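Notebook, p. 212. Picked up where the previous page left off. The plan for this session was modest: take the two constructs that came back from the sequencing core last week, fold each one, and keep the raw output in the notebook itself so nobody has to go hunting through shared drives later. Recording the first one now, exactly as returned: residue sequence, then the C-alpha coordinate string.
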Amino acid sequence: MHQIEVRDVTLVYDTPAGRVPGVQDVSFSLEASEFLCIVGRSGCGKTTLLNILAGFLAPAAGEIRIGGKVVTGHGLDRGIVFQDFAQLFPWRTALENVAFGLEMKGVPKAEREGIALKQLQLVKLEKFAQSYPHHLSGGMQQRVAIARALAYNPAVLLMDEPFAALDALTREEMQRILADVWRETRKTVIYVTHNVAEAVFLADRVVVMTPHPGTVKAQVPIRLPRPRDPLSIEFLEYQKELLRHLTEQAAEA
Protein backbone atom coordinates (compact mmCIF):
# COMPACT_ATOMS: atom_id res chain seq x y z
CA MET A 1 0.00 0.00 0.00
CA HIS A 2 1.25 3.51 -0.86
CA GLN A 3 1.51 5.91 2.07
CA ILE A 4 -0.11 8.69 0.03
CA GLU A 5 -2.49 8.23 -2.89
CA VAL A 6 -3.85 11.19 -4.86
CA ARG A 7 -6.68 9.91 -7.03
CA ASP A 8 -8.25 12.00 -9.81
CA VAL A 9 -8.36 15.13 -7.65
CA THR A 10 -10.21 18.14 -9.08
CA LEU A 11 -10.97 21.49 -7.46
CA VAL A 12 -12.92 24.36 -9.04
CA TYR A 13 -12.97 27.96 -7.80
CA ASP A 14 -16.07 30.16 -8.12
CA THR A 15 -14.97 33.60 -9.33
CA PRO A 16 -16.81 36.71 -10.63
CA ALA A 17 -15.76 35.56 -14.12
CA GLY A 18 -17.25 32.11 -13.59
CA ARG A 19 -15.98 28.72 -12.43
CA VAL A 20 -12.22 28.32 -12.81
CA PRO A 21 -10.51 24.94 -12.36
CA GLY A 22 -7.61 25.01 -9.88
CA VAL A 23 -6.49 21.44 -10.45
CA GLN A 24 -8.06 18.76 -12.62
CA ASP A 25 -7.77 14.96 -12.55
CA VAL A 26 -4.47 14.98 -10.63
CA SER A 27 -3.18 11.52 -9.70
CA PHE A 28 0.09 10.26 -8.21
CA SER A 29 1.24 8.21 -5.23
CA LEU A 30 4.13 8.17 -2.75
CA GLU A 31 5.86 5.42 -0.87
CA ALA A 32 6.75 5.88 2.80
CA SER A 33 9.87 8.04 3.29
CA GLU A 34 9.81 9.29 -0.31
CA PHE A 35 10.75 12.92 -1.01
CA LEU A 36 8.52 14.28 -3.80
CA CYS A 37 8.84 17.74 -5.33
CA ILE A 38 6.06 19.40 -7.31
CA VAL A 39 7.18 21.98 -9.87
CA GLY A 40 5.32 24.09 -12.39
CA ARG A 41 4.66 27.58 -13.60
CA SER A 42 2.57 30.08 -11.65
CA GLY A 43 -1.11 29.18 -11.76
CA CYS A 44 -0.58 25.45 -12.25
CA GLY A 45 -2.22 24.59 -8.92
CA LYS A 46 0.84 23.56 -6.87
CA THR A 47 -0.25 25.38 -3.72
CA THR A 48 -3.91 24.47 -4.28
CA LEU A 49 -2.94 20.81 -4.38
CA LEU A 50 -0.85 21.16 -1.21
CA ASN A 51 -3.81 22.81 0.55
CA ILE A 52 -5.99 19.87 -0.45
CA LEU A 53 -3.36 17.46 0.89
CA ALA A 54 -3.25 19.48 4.11
CA GLY A 55 -7.02 19.27 4.44
CA PHE A 56 -7.56 23.04 4.17
CA LEU A 57 -9.52 22.65 0.91
CA ALA A 58 -11.93 19.88 -0.06
CA PRO A 59 -11.72 18.55 -3.65
CA ALA A 60 -14.77 18.78 -5.87
CA ALA A 61 -13.97 15.30 -7.17
CA GLY A 62 -11.47 12.55 -6.42
CA GLU A 63 -9.84 11.75 -3.09
CA ILE A 64 -6.56 11.68 -1.18
CA ARG A 65 -5.63 8.78 1.08
CA ILE A 66 -2.85 8.85 3.66
CA GLY A 67 -2.05 5.50 5.21
CA GLY A 68 -5.18 4.12 3.56
CA LYS A 69 -7.48 6.69 5.19
CA VAL A 70 -9.33 9.33 3.17
CA VAL A 71 -8.31 12.93 4.01
CA THR A 72 -11.38 14.84 5.22
CA GLY A 73 -9.66 17.71 7.01
CA HIS A 74 -6.42 18.73 8.68
CA GLY A 75 -4.86 16.19 11.03
CA LEU A 76 -1.76 15.66 13.15
CA ASP A 77 -0.51 13.09 10.63
CA ARG A 78 0.63 16.06 8.49
CA GLY A 79 3.14 18.75 9.42
CA ILE A 80 3.09 21.94 7.32
CA VAL A 81 5.75 24.56 6.57
CA PHE A 82 4.79 27.68 4.62
CA GLN A 83 6.84 30.33 2.83
CA ASP A 84 5.75 33.14 5.15
CA PHE A 85 8.10 33.88 8.06
CA ALA A 86 5.06 35.14 10.02
CA GLN A 87 3.98 31.54 10.65
CA LEU A 88 5.89 31.69 13.98
CA PHE A 89 4.32 33.22 17.09
CA PRO A 90 6.33 36.41 17.77
CA TRP A 91 5.63 36.31 21.53
CA ARG A 92 7.07 32.80 21.88
CA THR A 93 10.73 31.80 21.95
CA ALA A 94 12.06 29.33 19.39
CA LEU A 95 11.70 26.53 21.94
CA GLU A 96 8.14 27.57 22.82
CA ASN A 97 7.20 27.79 19.12
CA VAL A 98 8.49 24.28 18.48
CA ALA A 99 6.70 22.93 21.56
CA PHE A 100 3.35 24.57 20.67
CA GLY A 101 1.73 21.56 18.98
CA LEU A 102 2.78 19.30 21.84
CA GLU A 103 1.35 21.80 24.32
CA MET A 104 -1.99 21.67 22.46
CA LYS A 105 -1.89 17.87 22.74
CA GLY A 106 -1.47 18.14 26.52
CA VAL A 107 2.10 16.83 26.66
CA PRO A 108 3.68 17.74 30.04
CA LYS A 109 5.99 20.78 29.97
CA ALA A 110 9.28 19.00 30.71
CA GLU A 111 8.59 16.32 28.09
CA ARG A 112 7.52 18.73 25.36
CA GLU A 113 10.49 21.01 25.98
CA GLY A 114 12.82 18.02 25.77
CA ILE A 115 11.30 17.01 22.43
CA ALA A 116 11.41 20.60 21.15
CA LEU A 117 15.09 20.93 22.06
CA LYS A 118 15.92 17.73 20.17
CA GLN A 119 14.17 19.11 17.09
CA LEU A 120 16.08 22.38 17.38
CA GLN A 121 19.30 20.34 17.61
CA LEU A 122 18.26 18.56 14.41
CA VAL A 123 18.08 21.90 12.55
CA LYS A 124 21.23 23.18 14.31
CA LEU A 125 19.50 25.88 16.37
CA GLU A 126 19.75 24.58 19.93
CA LYS A 127 21.88 27.62 20.90
CA PHE A 128 18.95 29.88 19.94
CA ALA A 129 16.26 28.03 21.90
CA GLN A 130 15.47 31.09 24.04
CA SER A 131 15.54 33.58 21.17
CA TYR A 132 12.38 35.24 19.84
CA PRO A 133 11.58 35.22 16.11
CA HIS A 134 12.54 38.88 15.63
CA HIS A 135 16.06 38.01 16.82
CA LEU A 136 16.41 35.31 14.14
CA SER A 137 17.26 35.62 10.43
CA GLY A 138 14.77 34.46 7.82
CA GLY A 139 16.60 31.18 7.33
CA MET A 140 16.71 30.55 11.08
CA GLN A 141 12.98 31.25 11.37
CA GLN A 142 12.31 28.68 8.66
CA ARG A 143 14.44 26.16 10.54
CA VAL A 144 12.31 26.78 13.63
CA ALA A 145 9.20 26.25 11.49
CA ILE A 146 10.58 22.92 10.22
CA ALA A 147 11.42 21.85 13.78
CA ARG A 148 7.90 22.77 14.91
CA ALA A 149 6.34 20.78 12.08
CA LEU A 150 8.42 17.73 13.06
CA ALA A 151 7.98 18.01 16.83
CA TYR A 152 4.69 16.11 17.09
CA ASN A 153 6.06 13.38 14.79
CA PRO A 154 3.75 13.61 11.75
CA ALA A 155 3.93 10.88 9.14
CA VAL A 156 4.01 13.43 6.30
CA LEU A 157 5.70 16.82 5.91
CA LEU A 158 4.08 19.29 3.48
CA MET A 159 6.23 22.24 2.40
CA ASP A 160 5.05 25.17 0.27
CA GLU A 161 8.08 26.98 -1.22
CA PRO A 162 9.56 27.45 2.27
CA PHE A 163 12.86 28.92 1.02
CA ALA A 164 11.54 31.13 -1.81
CA ALA A 165 11.95 34.40 0.12
CA LEU A 166 15.55 33.69 1.17
CA ASP A 167 18.70 34.97 -0.52
CA ALA A 168 20.55 32.52 -2.76
CA LEU A 169 23.30 31.53 -0.31
CA THR A 170 20.88 31.06 2.61
CA ARG A 171 18.59 29.06 0.37
CA GLU A 172 21.40 26.68 -0.59
CA GLU A 173 22.30 26.24 3.07
CA MET A 174 18.65 25.51 3.93
CA GLN A 175 18.44 22.93 1.16
CA ARG A 176 21.44 21.11 2.62
CA ILE A 177 19.98 21.26 6.13
CA LEU A 178 16.63 19.95 4.92
CA ALA A 179 18.33 17.09 3.07
CA ASP A 180 20.14 16.20 6.30
CA VAL A 181 16.90 16.40 8.32
CA TRP A 182 15.13 14.15 5.83
CA ARG A 183 17.96 11.63 5.90
CA GLU A 184 17.79 11.62 9.70
CA THR A 185 13.98 11.42 10.09
CA ARG A 186 12.97 9.60 6.87
CA LYS A 187 9.69 11.48 6.76
CA THR A 188 7.50 11.34 3.67
CA VAL A 189 7.80 14.83 2.13
CA ILE A 190 5.80 16.70 -0.50
CA TYR A 191 7.64 19.89 -1.40
CA VAL A 192 6.27 22.59 -3.72
CA THR A 193 8.81 24.73 -5.59
CA HIS A 194 9.22 26.65 -8.84
CA ASN A 195 13.00 26.14 -8.72
CA VAL A 196 14.09 23.13 -10.80
CA ALA A 197 17.61 23.04 -9.31
CA GLU A 198 16.09 22.85 -5.84
CA ALA A 199 13.82 20.02 -6.97
CA VAL A 200 16.74 18.03 -8.41
CA PHE A 201 18.81 18.60 -5.25
CA LEU A 202 16.07 17.41 -2.87
CA ALA A 203 13.71 14.99 -4.59
CA ASP A 204 13.52 11.28 -5.17
CA ARG A 205 10.91 12.12 -7.82
CA VAL A 206 9.58 15.32 -9.38
CA VAL A 207 5.98 15.84 -10.50
CA VAL A 208 5.73 18.48 -13.26
CA MET A 209 2.38 20.24 -13.45
CA THR A 210 0.92 22.15 -16.37
CA PRO A 211 -1.45 25.13 -15.84
CA HIS A 212 -4.97 25.99 -16.98
CA PRO A 213 -6.16 23.65 -15.62
CA GLY A 214 -3.52 22.26 -13.27
CA THR A 215 -2.75 18.69 -14.29
CA VAL A 216 0.22 16.33 -14.05
CA LYS A 217 2.32 16.53 -17.22
CA ALA A 218 5.23 14.27 -16.22
CA GLN A 219 6.83 12.41 -13.34
CA VAL A 220 10.64 12.36 -13.35
CA PRO A 221 12.58 10.05 -10.98
CA ILE A 222 15.87 11.63 -9.84
CA ARG A 223 18.37 8.77 -9.77
CA LEU A 224 21.36 10.54 -8.26
CA PRO A 225 23.38 9.55 -5.18
CA ARG A 226 23.18 11.74 -2.08
CA PRO A 227 24.60 14.18 -1.18
CA ARG A 228 24.16 15.66 -4.63
CA ASP A 229 26.59 17.82 -6.55
CA PRO A 230 24.72 20.70 -8.26
CA LEU A 231 27.66 21.19 -10.65
CA SER A 232 27.79 17.61 -11.92
CA ILE A 233 26.84 16.83 -15.51
CA GLU A 234 24.13 14.40 -14.35
CA PHE A 235 22.57 17.04 -12.08
CA LEU A 236 22.50 19.58 -14.92
CA GLU A 237 20.95 17.00 -17.27
CA TYR A 238 18.03 16.51 -14.86
CA GLN A 239 17.58 20.29 -14.70
CA LYS A 240 17.44 20.39 -18.49
CA GLU A 241 14.85 17.62 -18.56
CA LEU A 242 12.57 19.45 -16.12
CA LEU A 243 13.03 22.75 -17.95
CA ARG A 244 12.20 20.99 -21.22
CA HIS A 245 8.85 19.86 -19.77
CA LEU A 246 8.14 23.39 -18.50
CA THR A 247 9.13 24.96 -21.84
CA GLU A 248 6.87 22.56 -23.69
CA GLN A 249 4.03 23.73 -21.43
CA ALA A 250 4.61 27.34 -22.46
CA ALA A 251 4.71 26.41 -26.16
CA GLU A 252 1.50 24.40 -25.90
CA ALA A 253 -0.22 27.28 -24.04
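Okay, moving on. Second construct, recorded in the same format:
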Amino acid sequence: MAYMSQEGYDKLVAELQRLESVERPKASAAIAEARDKGDLSENSEYDAAKEAQAHLEDKINQLKMTISEAKIVDTSRLSTDSVQILTKVEMTNLTTKTKMSYTIVSENEADLRAGKISIKTPIAQGLLGKKVGDEVEIQIPRGTIKLRIENISIA
Protein backbone atom coordinates (compact mmCIF):
# COMPACT_ATOMS: atom_id res chain seq x y z
CA MET A 1 0.00 0.00 0.00
CA ALA A 2 1.29 3.47 -0.86
CA TYR A 3 0.20 6.44 1.22
CA MET A 4 0.00 9.63 -0.81
CA SER A 5 -1.59 13.02 -1.09
CA GLN A 6 -4.67 13.67 -3.21
CA GLU A 7 -2.43 15.74 -5.52
CA GLY A 8 -0.02 12.83 -5.99
CA TYR A 9 -2.89 10.43 -6.66
CA ASP A 10 -4.42 12.80 -9.22
CA LYS A 11 -1.06 13.07 -11.03
CA LEU A 12 -0.80 9.27 -11.27
CA VAL A 13 -4.33 9.00 -12.67
CA ALA A 14 -3.59 11.75 -15.24
CA GLU A 15 -0.35 9.99 -16.26
CA LEU A 16 -2.22 6.70 -16.69
CA GLN A 17 -4.86 8.38 -18.85
CA ARG A 18 -2.15 10.00 -20.99
CA LEU A 19 -0.33 6.69 -21.48
CA GLU A 20 -3.52 4.87 -22.41
CA SER A 21 -5.04 7.54 -24.66
CA VAL A 22 -1.93 9.05 -26.31
CA GLU A 23 1.11 6.80 -25.96
CA ARG A 24 -0.62 3.44 -26.54
CA PRO A 25 -2.09 4.50 -29.93
CA LYS A 26 1.33 5.92 -30.91
CA ALA A 27 2.97 2.57 -30.10
CA SER A 28 0.36 0.67 -32.12
CA ALA A 29 0.85 3.02 -35.07
CA ALA A 30 4.64 2.56 -34.92
CA ILE A 31 4.19 -1.23 -35.02
CA ALA A 32 1.76 -1.00 -37.93
CA GLU A 33 4.12 1.30 -39.85
CA ALA A 34 7.07 -1.03 -39.26
CA ARG A 35 4.98 -4.07 -40.24
CA ASP A 36 4.11 -2.40 -43.52
CA LYS A 37 7.81 -2.27 -44.40
CA GLY A 38 7.92 -5.95 -45.27
CA ASP A 39 9.70 -9.04 -43.95
CA LEU A 40 9.30 -9.12 -40.16
CA SER A 41 12.14 -11.58 -39.59
CA GLU A 42 14.75 -8.98 -40.54
CA ASN A 43 12.87 -5.84 -39.53
CA SER A 44 14.70 -4.24 -36.59
CA GLU A 45 12.28 -1.29 -36.65
CA TYR A 46 9.41 -3.71 -36.01
CA ASP A 47 11.33 -5.39 -33.16
CA ALA A 48 12.11 -2.01 -31.60
CA ALA A 49 8.48 -0.90 -31.88
CA LYS A 50 7.29 -4.14 -30.25
CA GLU A 51 9.82 -3.72 -27.44
CA ALA A 52 8.76 -0.09 -26.87
CA GLN A 53 5.14 -1.25 -26.70
CA ALA A 54 6.04 -3.92 -24.12
CA HIS A 55 7.80 -1.29 -21.95
CA LEU A 56 4.76 0.99 -22.25
CA GLU A 57 2.39 -1.81 -21.22
CA ASP A 58 4.61 -2.60 -18.22
CA LYS A 59 4.51 1.04 -17.16
CA ILE A 60 0.71 1.15 -17.57
CA ASN A 61 0.32 -2.02 -15.49
CA GLN A 62 2.62 -0.68 -12.75
CA LEU A 63 0.66 2.59 -12.61
CA LYS A 64 -2.64 0.69 -12.41
CA MET A 65 -1.29 -1.39 -9.53
CA THR A 66 0.02 1.67 -7.68
CA ILE A 67 -3.30 3.47 -8.13
CA SER A 68 -5.28 0.44 -6.95
CA GLU A 69 -3.10 0.14 -3.82
CA ALA A 70 -3.01 3.88 -3.09
CA LYS A 71 -4.30 5.16 0.21
CA ILE A 72 -4.99 8.89 0.16
CA VAL A 73 -3.99 10.63 3.37
CA ASP A 74 -6.40 13.24 4.70
CA THR A 75 -3.97 16.05 5.50
CA SER A 76 -6.53 17.74 7.77
CA ARG A 77 -6.13 14.82 10.19
CA LEU A 78 -2.34 14.96 10.32
CA SER A 79 -0.57 16.17 13.43
CA THR A 80 2.58 18.25 13.63
CA ASP A 81 3.59 16.66 16.94
CA SER A 82 6.05 14.37 15.18
CA VAL A 83 7.46 13.72 11.71
CA GLN A 84 5.24 11.55 9.49
CA ILE A 85 4.33 11.19 5.84
CA LEU A 86 3.18 14.45 4.21
CA THR A 87 4.77 16.62 6.87
CA LYS A 88 7.30 19.30 6.00
CA VAL A 89 10.36 19.14 8.22
CA GLU A 90 12.67 22.09 8.66
CA MET A 91 16.02 21.16 10.15
CA THR A 92 19.59 22.27 10.68
CA ASN A 93 22.62 20.20 9.75
CA LEU A 94 24.59 20.47 13.01
CA THR A 95 27.94 19.90 11.30
CA THR A 96 27.64 22.51 8.52
CA LYS A 97 25.02 24.73 10.21
CA THR A 98 23.01 24.74 6.97
CA LYS A 99 19.25 24.82 7.11
CA MET A 100 17.22 22.45 4.97
CA SER A 101 13.59 21.61 4.49
CA TYR A 102 11.97 18.47 3.09
CA THR A 103 8.45 17.20 2.72
CA ILE A 104 8.19 13.46 3.27
CA VAL A 105 6.08 11.84 0.56
CA SER A 106 5.40 8.46 -1.06
CA GLU A 107 7.96 7.06 -3.50
CA ASN A 108 5.77 8.07 -6.45
CA GLU A 109 5.61 11.70 -5.35
CA ALA A 110 9.32 12.15 -4.58
CA ASP A 111 10.90 15.13 -6.36
CA LEU A 112 14.13 16.39 -4.83
CA ARG A 113 14.05 19.65 -6.79
CA ALA A 114 10.67 20.40 -5.22
CA GLY A 115 11.99 19.44 -1.77
CA LYS A 116 9.98 16.22 -1.63
CA ILE A 117 11.82 13.11 -0.46
CA SER A 118 10.58 9.54 -0.46
CA ILE A 119 9.55 8.05 2.85
CA LYS A 120 11.94 5.19 2.02
CA THR A 121 15.08 7.38 1.96
CA PRO A 122 17.53 7.09 4.87
CA ILE A 123 16.88 10.72 5.89
CA ALA A 124 13.09 10.26 5.98
CA GLN A 125 13.44 6.97 7.84
CA GLY A 126 15.70 8.65 10.41
CA LEU A 127 13.25 11.51 10.92
CA LEU A 128 9.99 9.55 11.24
CA GLY A 129 8.43 9.82 14.69
CA LYS A 130 10.86 12.52 15.85
CA LYS A 131 9.72 15.81 17.40
CA VAL A 132 10.74 19.49 17.20
CA GLY A 133 14.04 19.96 19.04
CA ASP A 134 15.14 16.35 18.60
CA GLU A 135 18.67 15.79 17.36
CA VAL A 136 19.21 12.75 15.18
CA GLU A 137 22.18 11.02 13.63
CA ILE A 138 21.31 9.46 10.30
CA GLN A 139 23.46 7.05 8.31
CA ILE A 140 23.49 8.08 4.64
CA PRO A 141 25.63 6.75 1.78
CA ARG A 142 28.25 9.49 2.34
CA GLY A 143 28.55 8.86 6.09
CA THR A 144 26.60 10.12 9.09
CA ILE A 145 24.78 13.43 9.34
CA LYS A 146 23.55 15.11 12.51
CA LEU A 147 20.31 17.02 12.20
CA ARG A 148 18.21 19.06 14.61
CA ILE A 149 14.49 19.32 13.84
CA GLU A 150 13.48 23.00 13.95
CA ASN A 151 9.88 22.85 12.77
CA ILE A 152 7.23 20.39 11.56
CA SER A 153 4.30 21.58 9.47
CA ILE A 154 1.69 20.13 7.14
CA ALA A 155 2.82 20.33 3.53
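Notes on construct two before I forget. The chain has a mean pLDDT of 91.
Flagging for discussion at group meeting.
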